[in-house]
Design brief:
single chain; about 80 residues; alpha+beta; Mth169, Chain: A; three-stranded antiparallel β-sheet; elongated; phosphoribosylformylglycinamidine synthase activity; nucleotide-binding; cytoplasm; EC 6.3.5.3; ATP binding
Length: about 80
């Protein structure tokens, strides 16, 4: 079983990496990009039967800083 965890900064949290990407895109001639939010994707290979609650615990304890980041989980 696989899990994909998407981690993003919460709205209202300054995203300096996203701003740097937005600026770089403008410098390369890509107009019309008004904002960029950068996040991360974590893919986990899990033993069959691993519950979504277990993955949620992983996120809460290690994979995401829940003070400033939100996350979503996809299981397949």
């Amino acid at each position: 079983m696989k899990a994909r965890v998407h981690v993003m900064l919460k709205n209202g949290v300054l995203d300096p990496q996203g701003e740097a990407v937005r600026h770089a895109l403008g410098s390369l001639g890509f107009e019309g990009v008004e904002g960029v939010r950068q996040g991360k994707v974590i893919e986990l290979d899990l033993a069959d039967g691993t519950s979504e609650d277990t993955v949620k615990d992983m996120c809460e304890k290690l994979l995401a800083n829940t003070v400033i980041e939100s996350y979503s989980i996809e299981l397949s």
